[in-house]
Design brief:
Distance between the termini of chain B: 139 Å
Largest sheet of chain A: 2 strands, antiparallel
Largest interface: A-B, 58 and 85 residues
Number of helices of chain A: 1
Number of domains of chain A: 2
Structural class of chain B: alpha/beta
Largest sheet of chain B: 8 strands, mixed
Low-confidence stretches of chain B: 28-58, 302-349, 391-405, 716-726, 1120-1126, 1155-1179
Strand order of the largest sheet of chain A: 1-2
CATH topology of the largest domain in chain B: Rossmann fold
Oligomer: heterodimer
Strand content of chain A: under 5%
Helix content of chain B: 25-40%
Number of strands of chain A: 2
Low-confidence stretches of chain A: 26-43
Mean pLDDT of chain B: 79
Shape of chain A: elongated
Helix content of chain A: 10-25%
CATH superfamily of the largest domain in chain B: P-loop containing nucleotide triphosphate hydrolases
Mean pLDDT of chain A: 72
CATH class of the largest domain in chain B: Alpha Beta
Chain lengths: ~80, ~1200
């Protein structure tokens, strides 16, 4: 793996990288789609908020569970208002 | 043409720079590092606008000699270039600062080689890596994110800039720019999917709310691919002394910053989660998640309703927010969060509480995010901590005791290895290193799950969520573990390991950590020799003082002062001492050093030494006491009861049962040590005989000490004589009045070698107990009442021992009676009690404290330490602790213990000796006088009648004066026998027993029933001949039922036959029929086939009366009882006058306490007897 090799050993490929820029638009698709679609292909993965799988937090702030308080925030991230 | 490059610097800013193709090949001297460059034409430069001021910071990093890149584009020109590409980029360029950066770039012949994006034709390949200074535009994180978003173009890597005066020029994006935009794109997509988690971080600027990436498996793979494909030029920042970051590290840093920025951009304009100003750290954090910079706003110091975290403060959670409470768990309200707040920095309590609140929130968030493993997870991530290899204490060249100061450098080489374990097959445990290398390990794991690497990565991510300090391990693309220094290792042991284990990870720690020794104080004490005193090595003299010296130990390792000082100076939490790793608490070391310096040596009382030795929870100067090493007697060991019982002297009138021998051995051991004892056996198990045995043994030992020791086979050398000149020998027994007679008779019967003096009743009238009297007696018996009244006299005597029977009489230490008894001077003390005191802590302390004054602290401290946890909460740990504390000093056996029951006869027959009151004695003597007077004038049947009548009346007197007088007077406390009966019933009921009480006299039963019911506070059944059959059956059924009345009073005739009363385990015969067969028949009502419990049968006999004498007669001739006594009691009438006189005369020891009216009572009794002559028996 070159990511950890000393730079002095990478002079031949110093200015190059082995990566691909994604061309996925922002619209969600079904979870069954490939994670790395080619440019112009089907849309990327559906929203999958990280807290969705966590359940109640047990942390109460201003009388409410933190997981509940964050729901609107995550909605804003995954379903921004037009 | 330009080639645009980018660098994400270690300071978290983006540096944009460019190569100018036109400048390539121009001699370096013509290149101006400041202002315009030859890369842009002068006209273009003028047309581009005025030059922007350049920050003078242009020096290369210290220690680096770097030349200016010959064809790098000046920063201002770069800014104009960006503006020429598009207005958005132009605006962003205006926000940037012009700086210099030093990069390591390939070169040839002292010239950096151009990047492939710069169309300058064929050039020599770069063969060396050298530092070059390039002008850069430096973008802060918000602008950097925006810039990267603007530069992102998956389809085209060249932009066109319309430079004024020059026309379109191409700007090729180098791989570094494209790579960075790819990372930004990943970040942007993560945000768009909600794959982010909010955390709280502490930075130099204060507390920050931060959004961190939470990639799923696909995103993780994409990130890994990006990291692997990172162009080396992205890592080219030149930092002297620092290694270049890996692609993985760089990616992680970038994602962390960019995800946070893009999340905030996405949340711009959205309403905040809370509609009011934050009042707690948690609320401030929540609000800061939506703020542009994420910095937590200071929380105003007001008593606002602020809620915290569940479990940290009761009642802290309130939906209405109206309950006042501190902010966030342990913090106080209005916590000041950082410098520059309105409250003002340095408000100690506020700042501290905010820190605590923040730490609490951080921890709870981490726990929430880490969650628990999925139920169907096949593999579990394990963390194995390995200590550095070092000298082994067992090796010949192991360092000596002074190894503390010279800890080898390798002691900081700790390591955590990551392993994967199969959940279904725990023996399948594979290191991450083996996983990455493929082969059998990977194959084995692949059989458990399709994607072991993916599972490993996911679990590692989860672990990092739980413990962010593990993130360091993710700096490489194939993490296998983490190197730690000693401080980090200690933090892992103390904090991370429990948290990870709780989150479902496996944690493998060194064995020594599981049983790490604790620091404690060690007390060495030795008896202070007193000039001229006889040294008695066998006994603890609680009044003596002892020389002491404290030292410190860690577990079993005693530390020298030098080692302790070195530990304190080392300031390390983990130290290798004599080859072993130990955890060291710096505060404790400091406290120990201070303590030793000021109170390390001196003198203290033996009682204090004993208390320190016995109390497992004691702390001195806040430090636990590990052990006490006393030279001399060490106090009772656990084997006191198992010591060989001493030999009973010849003439002792009983054979002790095995448990009684053990009791004697225990009493004897404690007595030899000078430690008091509490004997708390159940009633009927022979506390009296065990105590008398001890007294008899000691008397024999005083006479023949050495021989007794050898004959008894006791280990060790024979003890010197326990009696030194002047040592007291008399034992004082204090008991309730009703037991005086019992002690007398038992002492006469079992220990006739004891010289007994009874200090009560008529004998007391002759004079007081003087030292001479005490010296002439082995056992002085007195009552609680007299112990109080004659406290001064008794207090002047030096007793060998004070024994208190029915010790609950002194349970209240404040009463005058209690104080009087406790003030008696004695070398040894014993408390006898039949009530189960261990559940009534106030009583327990009273008896323990009587037996060993001061050893258990004050009643208040005892109650505070044990009462609530034991009595109210039944806390098992504290109950166990109390048992261990009191255990050496209290022996209690119960009849219900199978081991004890096995040693008891199925039917235990006990004679209970009672005294007469003065009133009874007076009446008794009057009846006797009347009889003897009549005997002279009658013969034959008339004589027989007179004798039987008198004896009957004597029996009634022995029961109660009211029975003889038939005056329906209140029973009160006028009968020693009734008083004794009340005591027996109370004790039996306290043990959970059920009692049958037989009396020959139906009339007496009628008097007793209400009296006993009132005294006991519960129903007493009474069955006599006049009770109808149905009612009789009902009473029997009720007594036999588990919830029914527990005391059943029966007349001997009615209750003697045809009844099944097997629920009883106690039988009391109040008065005797003097026909053993009749009594046995009554007893057998309880003791029947099918009765599973052992039965105790008590016969109450008044001392010194006809009852005692006829009982002796019957006992001696029991085998021929029927032949001698015949049926009924007719045989009494045929006794000769001399025999009769002997039988009926009243001994002096029959009477209990006298009262002031003793003499008048006797005269009155005669008159009363005269009134009752005739017609008494048979009612």
């Amino acid at each position: 793996m070159t990511d950890a090799q000393p730079l002095s050993e990478l002079l031949d490929t110093f200015w190059e990288g082995d990566f691909t820029l994604h061309a996925t638009p922002a619209a969600p698709v079904s979870p069954a789609s490939e994670p790395d679609p080619a440019p112009g292909s089907a849309p990327g993965p559906a929203p999958d908020p990280a807290i969705a799988a966590l359940g109640p937090s047990g942390i109460r702030i201003a009388g409410r569970d933190l997981a509940t308080l964050l729901v609107p925030t995550y909605r804003q991230l995954t379903e921004p208002a037009d | 043409m330009y080639a645009l490059h980018a660098l994400w610097q270690a300071d978290g800013r983006l540096a944009l720079w460019a190569e100018d193709a036109q400048a390539f090949g121009v001699p370096a001297r013509e290149v101006h590092p400041v202002g315009g460059s030859s890369a842009l034409s002068a006209g273009a430069a003028r047309a581009a606008g005025p030059e922007r001021p350049v920050d003078p910071e242009r020096r290369a990093p210290k220690g680096v000699r770097a030349a200016v890149h010959p064809y790098a584009c000046p920063a201002d020109a770069l800014a104009r270039l960006l503006g020429a590409i598009g207005p958005g980029l132009g605006w962003l360029a205006e926000q940037a600062r012009e700086r210099w950066a030093t990069l390591l770039l390939p070169g040839f012949s002292a010239t950096p080689t151009p990047s492939p994006q710069l169309p300058v034709g064929a050039v020599e390949r770069g063969v060396t890596l050298s530092p070059w200074r390039v002008p850069v535009l430096l973008f802060e994180a918000p602008e950097a994110a925006q810039l990267l978003g603007e530069l992102f173009d998956p389809y085209c890597s060249v932009a066109v800039a319309e430079l004024p005066g020059t026309g379109p020029v191409e700007v090729a994006y180098g791989a570094s720019v494209r790579w960075l935009t790819a990372v930004h794109d990943l970040a942007w997509r993560l945000v768009g999917r909600g794959r982010v988690l909010p955390v709280l971080r502490e930075t130099r600027g204060g507390l920050h709310a931060h959004w961190q990436p939470a990639p799923d498996a696909a995103a993780r793979r994409e990130a890994e691919a990006l990291a692997a494909g990172c162009p080396p030029v992205c890592r080219a920042e030149c930092s002297p002394g620092a290694r270049a970051r890996t692609g993985t590290e760089l990616l992680a840093e970038l994602l962390d910053v960019l995800v946070d920025r893009e999340t905030r951009v996405a949340l711009e304009g959205a309403p905040p989660p809370l509609r009011r100003a934050p009042a707690t750290v948690a609320e401030a954090w929540l609000a800061a998640l939506h703020a542009a910079d994420g910095l937590l706003a200071p929380v105003a110091p007001q008593a606002v309703p602020a809620v915290g975290l569940p479990g940290s403060l009761p009642g802290s959670d309130s939906a209405s927010g109206s309950a006042p409470g501190p902010a966030l768990g342990r913090s106080g309200a209005g916590a000041d969060l950082g410098p520059g707040s309105g409250v003002g920095a340095g408000v100690g309590a506020g700042a501290d509480s905010a820190k605590r609140a923040a730490a609490d929130l951080t921890d709870r968030l981490a726990a929430w995010y880490a969650g628990t493993p999925a139920p169907d997870q096949a593999l579990r991530l394990c963390f194995r901590l390995s200590e550095p290899l070092g000298h082994d204490a067992d090796l010949p060249d192991a360092p000596g005791p002074s190894a503390v100061a010279n800890q080898p450098a390798g002691d900081d080489d700790w390591r955590i290895d990551f392993l994967l374990q199969s959940v279904d097959q725990p023996s399948l445990l594979v290191t991450a290193e083996d996983l990455w290398s493929g082969g059998p390990a990977w194959a084995a794991l692949s059989r458990q799950t399709d994607d072991p690497v993916g599972s490993y990565a996911a679990e590692l991510d989860r672990a990092v969520l739980r413990r962010p300090e593990l993130r360091r391990a993710l700096r490489i693309s194939r993490p296998t573990g983490l190197a730690l220094d000693r401080a980090e290792a200690l933090d892992f042991l103390r904090e991370a390991a429990p948290a990870l284990a709780e989150a479902g990870f496996g944690v493998l720690l060194p064995a020594w950590w599981q049983r790490r020794p604790r620091l404690g104080l060690v007390l060495k004490a030795a008896r202070t020799p007193v000039a001229g005193a006889l040294e008695r090595t066998g006994r603890i003299d609680r009044d003596a003082v002892m020389d002491f010296r404290w030292s410190v130990a860690i577990g079993e390792l005693s530390l020298t002062e030098k080692e302790l000082a070195e530990l304190g100076a080392a300031q390390q939490g983990l130290v290798r001492l004599r080859g072993r790793w130990i955890e060291v608490d710096a505060k404790q070391i400091e406290a120990a050093l201070a303590f030793l310096a000021h109170q390390g040596a001196g003198v203290m009382s033996t009682t204090e030494v004993l208390r320190l030795a016995l109390d497992p929870t004691v702390r001195v100067a806040g430090l636990p006491v590990a052990r006490v090493e006393a030279v001399g007697p060490r106090g009772p060991g656990r084997g006191a009861e198992r010591a060989s019982p001493p030999m009973l002297p010849d003439g002792f009138g009983a054979t002790l049962r095995p448990y009684q021998e053990r009791g004697l051995a225990w009493l004897h051991s404690l007595a030899r040590l000078g430690l008091g004892a509490v004997l708390a056996d159940d009633m009927g198990l022979g506390k009296t005989v065990q105590t008398l045995a001890l007294l008899a043994v000691e008397k024999a030992e005083r006479s023949e000490p050495a021989d007794r020791a050898r004959q008894a086979g006791q280990a060790g050398p024979a003890e010197p004589a326990l009696r030194a000149p002047g040592t007291a020998t008399a034992n004082l027994l204090v008991c309730p009045m009703s037991l005086v007679g019992n002690w007398q008779r038992e002492a006469e019967r079992f220990a006739p070698m004891l010289r007994v003096h009874v200090h009560h009743g008529a004998g007391r009238a002759d004079g007081s107990v003087t030292q001479a009297v005490a010296d002439g007696a082995d056992l002085v018996i007195t009552t609680y009442g007299l112990a109080q009244r004659d406290a001064d006299e008794l207090g002047r005597i030096a007793w060998r021992r004070v024994v208190v029977d029915e010790a609950q009489f002194i349970k209240n230490a404040a009463t005058a009676q209690s104080r009087a008894v406790r003030s008696l001077k004695a070398e040894h003390r014993i408390a006898l009690t039949g009530t189960p005191v261990e559940n009534r802590l106030a009583e327990l302390h009273a008896v323990l404290d009587f037996a060993n004054p001061g050893l258990f602290g004050s009643a208040e401290s005892f109650k505070e330490r044990y009462a609530i946890p034991v009595e109210l909460n039944a806390n098992p740990a504290m109950t166990g602790q109390l048992r261990r504390l009191a255990g050496p000093f209290m022996l209690r056996r119960s009849k219900s213990d199978p081991a004890i029951a096995a040693e008891l006869p199925a039917k235990q027959e006990i004679t209970v000796w009672c005294n007469l009151t003065a009133e009874q004695a007076g009446l008794y003597q009057a009846v006797v006088a009347d009889l003897l007077q009549r005997l002279g004038g009658v013969r034959g049947v008339e004589r027989q009648g007179a004798v039987l009548s008198a004896i009957g009346r004597l029996k009634q007197v022995c029961n109660h004066p009211a029975q003889l007088l038939h005056d329906r007077s209140v029973l009160g406390d006028r009968s020693g026998k009734v008083a004794r009966l009340e005591g027996i019933l109370a004790e039996a009921l306290a043990e959970g027993g059920r009692v049958l009480v037989f009396t020959q006299y139906a009339e007496f039963g009628r008097m007793l029933q209400p009296h006993l019911a009132a005294r006991l506070g519960e129903e007493v059944l009474y069955l006599h001949g006049g009770v109808p059959k149905r009612r009789r059956e009902e009473m029997v059924a009720r007594f036999q039922s588990p919830d029914g009345p527990r005391v059943f009073l029966l007349s001997l005739k009615a209750g003697g036959t045809g009844l099944n009363l097997t629920n009883a385990n106690h039988v009391v015969h109040l008065d005797r029929w003097w026909n053993p067969a009749v009594e046995d028949q009554a007893t057998d009502r309880a003791f029947r086939i099918g009765q599973r419990r052992d039965v105790q049968v008590r016969r109450l006999v008044c001392v010194g009366t006809v009852e005692e004498r006829i009982a002796e007669l019957i006992e001696s001739k029991r085998a021929l009882a029927e032949a001698v006594v015949g049926e009924g009691e007719q045989w009494l009438g045929d006794l000769s006058a001399a025999t009769l006189r002997e039988l009926v005369s009243l001994s002096a020891d029959a009477i209990g306490e006298s009262d002031a009216d003793g003499a008048i009572g006797a005269i009155g009794a005669s008159e009363a007897v005269g009134r009752t002559t005739g017609g008494v028996i048979g009612r």
